[in-house]
Every structure is written in C-alpha cells, then in structure tokens.
Amino acid sequence: MSLELLLAFALFAFVTSVTPGPNNMMLLASGVNFGVRRSVPHMLGISLGFMVLVMAVGLGLHQVFEQVPVLYTALRYLGAAYLLYLAWKIAGSGAPDSRDSGARPFTFLQAAAFQWVNPKAWVMAIGAITTYTPQEDFVTNALLIAALFALINCPSVGLWTVAGSLLRRWLSSPRVLRAFNIGMALLLVASLYPILVDIKGTV
C-alpha cells in the first residue's frame, strides 16, 4: 500500500469513526451515565468488533451478500430493530446510581456483537475494502486495513465517551439526565433515517 493511499484511508477512517452514528451516540450516553472508566469495555468492543467485521468483509463476506442479497437486507432489518430497542433502553435509563434503574454499560462482547447489526459499520467496512484496499496481495492488505481502522477508530469514538463524561456534572439532576437520555434516544432513532429510506427504496 502506497503512502498516499495509506494517508487517504487514515482520513477516511477518522472521519467515518468520529462523525455521529449509533456507536457514538451510545458512547456519549455511556460517558454521561457511567463515566469513561466503566465505558472502556464498550469502546474496545466497538473497535475490535469492527476490526473483525472489516476482516470478514475483506475475506469474502461482501461477495456472499452480492450473491444472496436477501441476507444483507435481513441483516439491515435486524440492525434497525435492535437500534430501536437500544433507543428505548437509553430513553428509559435513569441516573447510574439510582437503585431502580438497573442500568449497565455495554460489555465488550455486547459492543463487539453490535457491529454486525450496525448499519453504519457495514457501510464503513464495505467502503474501506472496496475503495482503499489494493488488489495486489489483497488478503494481506485487507488485514492491514482492518487493523489500522481499529487503531484509528478507538481514540476517535473515545472522544464521544470523554465528552459525555465531561457533561456529567451539568447533568447531575435526575430530571435533566432523563431529558438528555431521551434526546440521545431520539438522535439514535434519527440516525436510522438514511437506512430506513434505503431499505424502503429496495423493497
């Protein structure tokens, strides 16, 4: 991979990782509700789970979806449904130390598994493989792309967790925190709009 292509990919990875999306909305809420330390497994799960997804796309999963497009469509429906469920959970969560909230941050495995039903993650993975992976020595380059994406992704999404943590003192009131969580839930639902429009257009 040339240096020019590597720099272009690094910019792509940063921009797609740091811009709003389901992962970042949930990390912002996690930073507010649980702080940075308790959100670290969530951040690592996103980055490493996404790395595995990029590897899978690079090693042939994208070709499977091209041959059987109904599988990709089904995955997108599943992802949209799961995001709506997460939005409902976020909207209903209270202060982290309230005894009746039952709120818990995402675990590493939950965050990693979520990447497989996250529509934005699929768009990012397919874009990375089809646009920035040289055909020569393709498998090695695909693995390199996946590893670099994870390295860039983790600190990028971490910015949202830190931002959420910094907001904690301004959201100390249960009523304000509840309003914030409802706002985050609505933004998470709004992030589904392009996906739902695309699904509707293919039906």
From TrEMBL:
Segments passing through the bilayer: 44-62, 74-91, 142-167, 179-197
Recorded coiled-coil stretches: none
GO cellular component, one term: plasma membrane
Bilayer disposition of the protein: Multi-pass membrane protein
Keyword Transmembrane annotated: yes
A GO molecular-function descriptor: amino acid transmembrane transporter activity
Protein source organism: Pseudomonas tohonis
One GO term of the biological process aspect: cysteine export across plasma membrane
The protein's name: Lysine transporter LysE
Keyword Transmembrane (UniProt): yes
Keyword entries, A-Z: Cell membrane, Membrane, Transmembrane, Transmembrane helix
Pfam families attached to this UniProt entry: LysE
Subcellular location, record wording: Cell membrane
